Amino acid sequence: MTYKAKIAFLSAGALAAIAVFLFAGVGDNWGYVLPRRAWKVLAMVLTAGCIAFSTVIFQTMTNNRILTPNMIGLDSMYMLTQTAVVYALGSGNKLLVDNNFNFALTLGLMLLFAGLLYKVMFKKQGNHIYFLLLIGIILGTLLGSLTTFMQVLIDPNEFLVLQGKMFATYNKVQGQLTTICCFVVIIVAVYYSRFAKYMDVLSLGKQQAISLGVDYEFVVKRLLLIVAALISVSTALVGPITFLGLLVANVAYQWMNTYRHRQLIPGAILIGIIAVVGGQLVVERVFTFTTTLSVIVNLIGGVYFLYLLLRENKS
């Protein structure tokens, strides 16, 4: 099967999943149901695209197909922000209840965190990206410990409210937020187009990329900012989905069977859309909202992660 045929097959699968999600059980309430489902579908496409796009870029930068952008601690920053608001101001505060304020606060702090990490780590020339990952893991552990400390101290009733923020959900998505995210993602995608021509060379490794004339430090720093912005948008919009990027990126490598990012990135995005829209269908139609999408994705992604570890160990 050619690459075009594979992309066409994935596109048909994504469109079929979206169509089923939009029109299943609509009945006579088209005017009420369809606009709400359309905004939810747009949010799912946006988050799936951001996570798949950023994960493929990140794994190319690090030359490792097991690492994901969550390694730099953005998920921990998200949870700390939500917990700190409940701990300091209570679960009824506008910063937690109002989705617009909550989104602006969370997105701003996550971008600030990524910016500071980037500024401190790359202030001096020569710091390797793996040093940044190490610092990111340490900071993520520190933020996670602070989050747990505050969760232990807050009122149990307020902790129940906080639990709703711990898992990704599309039920809180609003049109205004999704529109803002669309503009941010478009700006990031346009900026990425300047560096798209380097991706295939970067996948060969640092020394090979430098020997082929790529300004490695400059390109990797800019790509890291792109990854941080995409992950911040998706996490602030719906919440953390830990294993989705790992899952869709590695399935895309196996399905597309190429090193060319011109085919890999669209393939990963389409697989992400099928996984998220299909998973949300299962949550709504099979489990009737008794669980969340992130629970299903993390369960499947966790098993797949173990499979990848065992496979790499054997090789």
Question: Would you spell out the secondary-structure blueprint of this structure?
Answer:
Elements: H1 3-23, H2 30-62, H3 74-89, H4 94-97, H5 99-121, H6 129-153, H7 156-166, H8 175-192, H9 199-202, H10 206-211, H11 216-238, H12 244-256, H13 261-286, H14 293-314
Helix pairs in contact: 1-2, 1-13, 2-8, 2-11, 2-12, 2-13, 3-5, 3-6, 3-7, 5-11, 8-11, 12-13
Name its key features.
14 helices, mainly alpha, 315 residues
Q: How would you classify the quaternary structure?
A: single chain
Helix content: over 70%
- H/E element order: HHHHHHHHHHHHHH
**Helix count?**
14
Task: Please tell me how large the radius of gyration is.
Answer: 20 Å
The end-to-end span amounts to 27 Å
The average pLDDT value, as a whole number, equals: 82
Strand content: under 5%
Shape label: globular
Question: What structural class do the secondary elements suggest?
Answer: mainly alpha
The profile of the biggest β sheet is:
none
Low-confidence stretches: none
What is the number of beta strands? Answer: 0
